[in-house]
């Protein structure tokens, strides 16, 4: 009897020790996540519910994460950039990694804010694999790329306006025609001389 009791106590002590180790690792991971500039989210690979995350991800999504809600586009208002369509679930990197078991990235993600504005995001997702190849967790990193997208849109708009201005400017048309006429005349005037210059030299 005492032997059985001693064994049970030993198991309980070991479990307590492991619990302390796990809690210590969890706190260390939380500290690391908090120090990162990007929004980071750790998900359960089966339920896709948050296991851990930092403050930056809540700032980017403008919503409070809980371990109750599954991470999906509808819940967190995640759209495909430039459209009013929710991002396809199967194409979202955190779901794609279940099939690829490798890094998946997407830069065409937008989050709808409460005021109707959008934030453009780059999402990278990678699985954490067990020794047997199964996925133990999914880690996703989110980065705000709105400034880059705005710059791209501005450059595209300026290019379109410049091309339209050039095409609609009558002076540009006359200039093209003038250059064409001048080039033709130059060739015509030069033709006789050119032909003479191409005659074989006298031996």
- Strand-and-helix sequence, N→C? HEEHHEHEEEHH
Number of domains: 3
- Counting DSSP E segments of at least 2 residues, the number of strands comes to 6
Q: Percent of residues in beta strands? A: 15-25%
- The best one-word shape is elongated
List unreliable stretches of 5+ residues.
Answer: none
Query: Number of DSSP helices?
Result: 6
CATH topology of the largest domain, what is it called? Beta-Lactamase
Task: Write down the CATH class of the largest domain.
Answer: Alpha Beta
Portion in helices: 40-55%
Any guess at the CATH architecture of the largest domain?
Answer: 2-Layer Sandwich
Query: For the record, what is the CATH homologous superfamily label of the largest domain?
Result: PAS domain
Mean pLDDT: 77
In the sheet with the most strands, the strands line up as 2-1-6-5-4-3
Q: How would a crystallographer describe the biggest sheet? A: 6 strands, antiparallel
Taking the alpha carbons of the first and last residues, their distance comes to 126 Å
Whole-angstrom Rg: 32 Å
Structure classification: alpha+beta
Describe this protein's structure.
This protein has helices at 2-35, 55-61, 73-76, 93-100, 146-168, 170-197, and strands spanning 39-43, 50-53, 78-80, 104-112, 118-129, 135-144. With 203 residues, it is an alpha+beta fold. A 6-stranded antiparallel sheet has the order 2-1-6-5-4-3, sandwiched between helices. The longest helix has 34 residues, at 2-35.
């Amino acid at each position: 009897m005492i032997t059985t009791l001693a064994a049970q106590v030993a198991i309980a002590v070991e479990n307590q020790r492991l619990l302390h180790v796990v809690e210590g690792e969890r706190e260390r991971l939380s500290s690391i996540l908090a120090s990162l500039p990007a929004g980071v989210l750790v998900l359960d690979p089966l339920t896709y519910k948050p296991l851990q995350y930092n403050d930056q991800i809540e700032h980017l999504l403008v919503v409070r994460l809980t371990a109750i809600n599954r991470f999906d586009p509808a819940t967190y208002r995640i759209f495909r950039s430039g459209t009013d369509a929710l991002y396809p679930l199967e194409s979202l990197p955190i779901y794609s990694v279940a099939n690829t078991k490798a890094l998946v990235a997407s830069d065409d993600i937008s989050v709808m804010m409460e005021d109707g504005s959008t934030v453009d995001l780059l999402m990278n997702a990678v699985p954490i694999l067990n020794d047997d190849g199964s996925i133990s967790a999914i880690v996703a990193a989110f980065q705000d790329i709105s400034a880059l997208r705005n710059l791209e849109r501005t450059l595209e708009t300026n290019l379109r306006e410049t091309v339209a201005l050039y095409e609609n400017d009558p002076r540009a048309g006359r200039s093209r025609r003038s250059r064409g006429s001048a080039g033709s005349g130059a060739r015509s005037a030069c033709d006789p001389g050119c032909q003479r210059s191409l005659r074989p030299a006298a031996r």
